[in-house]
Amino acid sequence: MLLRPAFLACLATVVLPLGLWFVLGSVDILRPAQGWLAPYATVRNLLSGQMDALAWAQWSVVVLLWGVTLNTVGAFQLRRRLARP
Q: Which regions span the lipid bilayer (predicted)?
């Protein structure tokens, strides 16, 4: 819903989170933010079975950012497109 061409949306679904994970992991000062912003970092904790309170908090922030926020923005954009005459 955020990107119009379907192929671009499909590509961005993989490239954006993976690119963010790579950039945050490659810059030393940004590495702590990787767990809070990049889905792949939090999924590693989730799949390993080592979820403490910090890991759950990071997972919650990532779900809110990538799942809820982006879908909400897309829904508002779709509503605005449909409301135009």
A: 56-76
Distance of CA 23 to the CA centre of its chain: 14
| The overall pTM is greater than 0.85 | no
Q: Is residue 27 exposed (0-12), middle (13-18) or buried (19+ Cβ within 10 Å)?
A: exposed
Taking only Cα atoms into account, the Rg of the chain, rounded to an integer number of angstroms, comes to 15
The CA-atom distances, in angstroms, between 79 and each of 22, 24, 27, 70 are 34, 33, 38, 14
CA distances from 19 to 16, 37, 52, 79 (A): 5, 11, 26, 29
